[in-house]
Design a protein that fits this description.
Bound molecules: glutamic acid
Radius of gyration: 31 Å
Distance between the termini: 88 Å
Structural class: mainly alpha
Largest sheet: 3 strands, parallel
Shape: elongated
Oligomer: single chain
Order of helices and strands: EHEHEHEHEEEEHEHEEHHHEHHHHHHHHH
Number of helices: 18
Number of strands: 12
Strand order of the largest sheet: 1-2-3
C-alpha cells in the first residue's frame, strides 16, 4: 500500500500592518485542514515588497495567530527559535531558481530601463490596448557593463491554462493574455508570483488555501511549476468575506483584527468558531463548535464559493453562547483583567455572585465595568423628591428582612399591594436608587447580592434620610 502524501499547508501573509478578517479566515481554514489531516501548518512571511513593509508587522501577525490558537508547526530557523519562514532571508534561493530558468531558455534578463518601460505603457494606453510585455520588447543586452536588469519569465505559446480548483471547479484561463512577468527584480528580490511557487515547492506544500483575489495569479504560478517540471499543488481559493451590505468588508462594518477582539474581551474560541463559519459549514445545523470539533469536521468539499457575509451581531451572539458554556469560575479567571479597579476590594465569592447575575446578558468582557460598577461603588443619583416618601417605606419594610431573595420578594410585593401602588413603577424606583440604572439584573437578586448593609444605605440615601 502506498502511503498517502502528507498534507502541508501554509499561511503566507505580507507584513503590511493589518490582518483583515479575510486573511485570518485563510489562516484558520489552512490550520483546520492541517489539523484535520494530521498534516503540517506552515507560516511564511512574504516580505518581498519592500515598499509596503510595516515595522513590527511580523510580530503583529504572530500575536494574532497565537491568540486564536493557530500555532504553526515549523520554521525553526534561528537558533531553535520557533519562528516562521521569512522570504527576505531566502533571496539566494529565488536567484538560483531564476538563473536556472534563464539557462534553460525559459526566462531572460531584461535591461529595459524604467523610462522606456513607462513609454511602452503609455503608448499602449494611448492606443487603448492592454499593456502586455513580450520578449520582443525587451532589451536583452546591457548598454553598459553592470547595468541593472530584471529576470522575466517568458510566456511561451501554448494551450490555455487549466486547473481544477477545490472550490471553483475546473478553471480555464487564456495563456495569450499573460505577459512576460518579472520573476526577479533588479534589487535581487523576487516578485510574489515567482517566490510563491519556489517556496510552495521547496516547502512541499500540497494544498494552497488563499483568498479568491489570487485566482487570477494562479495561471502564472502554474506556468512556473510547469517550467520547473514540478508537481502543482491543489489550489483552494476561498470566497471573499463581505460586509452585511455586500460591499468590501471594512472597519465601518464593525470588523476588527483578532487582537482588537481580544482587547474587547471576546473569547478566542468564539472568534475561532465564528471565523470558521465564514464560508464553511459541515452540512448539519450545529453552530457552536470548539476548535477541536471544527478540526474534526472541517473538509475542503464543504467550502462554499459564494461570498461570506460578516455579521458582527452574530459574532456577539456566538461569543455570548461560548461565555455561557463556561462555569462562572472559569469565566471569572478568563475575564480577570476586564473588571473595574474597585472590584479588587471585594472578595472572589462576591465577584462570582456578581458575574453569575450578569452572565446571561454578557456579550463580551469589555462590557463588564459598565454592567457591574454599581456592585462596587455607590451610584450617584438624582431621585425625584416625590419618590422619597415611598423609598422611606421601602427602607422600613426591609429593615428586618434577612435579605434572601424570597423574603425580599415577599416584602416588596406586600408593600406594593398594601399601598395600592404600581409594581413596575415602585420596582423601577428601587432599582434606580440602588443601582443608578434603569436596566439591571433582576431586582431581588441584585438586592440580595449587594447585601443588606449596602442596599439599605443606598435606599436611605436616595430617600434623603
Ligand atoms: N502574500 C500573500 C498575501 O499577502 C499571500 C498569497 C498566497 O497565499 O499565495 O495575501
Amino acid at each position: 500500500m502506498t502511503e498517502k502524501p502528507k498534507v502541508r499547508v501554509r499561511f503566507a501573509p505580507s507584513p503590511t500592518g493589518y490582518l483583515h478578517i479575510g486573511n485570518l479566515r485563510s489562516a484558520l481554514f489552512s490550520y483546520l485542514y492541517a489539523r484535520h489531516t494530521q498534516g503540517s501548518f506552515i507560516l511564511r512571511i512574504e516580505d518581498t515588497d519592500r515598499a509596503r513593509l510595516v515595522e513590527d508587522a511580523v510580530d503583529y501577525v504572530k500575536e494574532n495567530l497565537l491568540w486564536l490558537g493557530l500555532n504553526w508547526d515549523e520554521g525553526i530557523e534561528k537558533g531553535g527559535e520557533h519562528g516562521p519562514y521569512v522570504q527576505s532571508e531566502r533571496l539566494n534561493l529565488y536567484a538560483e531558481h531564476a538563473e536556472a530558468l534563464v539557462e534553460q531558455g525559459k526566462a531572460y534578463r531584461d535591461y529595459t530601463s524604467s523610462q522606456r518601460l513607462e513609454g511602452l505603457r503609455q503608448h499602449a494606453q494611448k492606443a487603448k490596448q492592454p499593456f502586455k510585455f513580450t520578449k520582443d520588447m525587451a532589451q536583452l543586452e546591457p548598454d553598459h557593463k553592470d547595468d541593472p536588469f530584471v529576470i522575466r519569465f517568458e510566456i511561451k505559446p501554448g494551450p490555455n491554462v487549466i486547473w481544477n480548483d477545490a472550490v471553483w471547479g475546473e478553471q480555464t484561463w487564456k495563456r495569450k493574455v499573460l505577459d512576460d512577468f518579472v520573476a526577479l527584480k533588479s534589487d535581487g528580490f523576487p516578485t510574489y508570483n515567482f517566490a510563491v511557487v519556489v517556496d510552495d515547492h521547496l516547502m512541499e506544500i500540497s494544498h494552497v488555501l488563499r483568498g479568491q483575489e489570487f485566482l487570477s495569479t494562479t495561471p502564472k504560478n502554474i506556468l512556473v511549476y510547469e517550467a520547473f517540471d514540478w508537481q502543482i499543488p491543489q489550489f483552494v481559493h476561498l470566497p471573499p468575506v463581505l460586509g452585511p451590505d455586500k460591499s468590501k468588508l471594512s472597519k465601518r462594518h464593525g470588523a476588527k483584527s483578532a487582537l482588537e477582539y481580544r482587547d474587547a474581551g471576546y473569547l478566542s474560541e468564539a472568534v475561532f468558531n465564528y471565523l470558521a463559519s465564514l464560508g464553511f459549514n459541515d452540512g448539519t445545523t450545529q453552530e457552536i463548535y470548539t476548535p477541536a470539533e471544527l478540526a474534526k469536521v472541517f473538509n475542503l468539499g464543504r467550502i462554499q464559493a459564494s461570498p461570506a457575509i460578516f455579521d458582527p451581531d452574530r459574532l456577539d451572539w456566538m461569543n455570548g453562547v461560548h461565555i455561557r458554556q463556561m462555569t462562572t469560575k472559569q469565566l471569572l479567571v478568563r475575564s480577570a483583567e476586564f473588571w473595574p479597579p474597585e472590584a479588587k476590594k471585594f472578595d472572589e465569592a462576591y465577584r462570582l455572585k456578581v458575574l453569575e447575575l450578569i452572565k446571561e446578558r454578557l456579550k463580551y468582557f469589555a462590557e463588564i465595568p459598565e454592567l457591574t460598577s454599581f456592585f462596587f461603588t455607590d451610584p450617584k443619583l438624582n431621585i425625584k423628591p416625590d419618590s422619597q416618601p415611598m423609598l422611606l417605606k421601602v427602607v422600613n419594610k426591609l429593615e428586618d428582612s434577612d435579605f434572601s431573595e424570597k423574603d425580599l420578594e415577599n416584602r416588596l410585593r406586600a408593600l406594593v399591594a398594601a399601598e395600592d401602588l404600581k409594581t413596575g413603577q415602585v420596582f423601577g424606583i428601587i432599582r434606580l436608587a440602588v443601582t443608578g440604572k434603569t436596566a439591571a439584573p433582576g431586582l431581588f437578586e441584585t438586592l440580595h447580592v449587594l447585601g443588606k448593609e449596602t442596599s439599605l444605605r443606598r435606599l436611605r440615601h436616595a430617600a434623603g434620610a
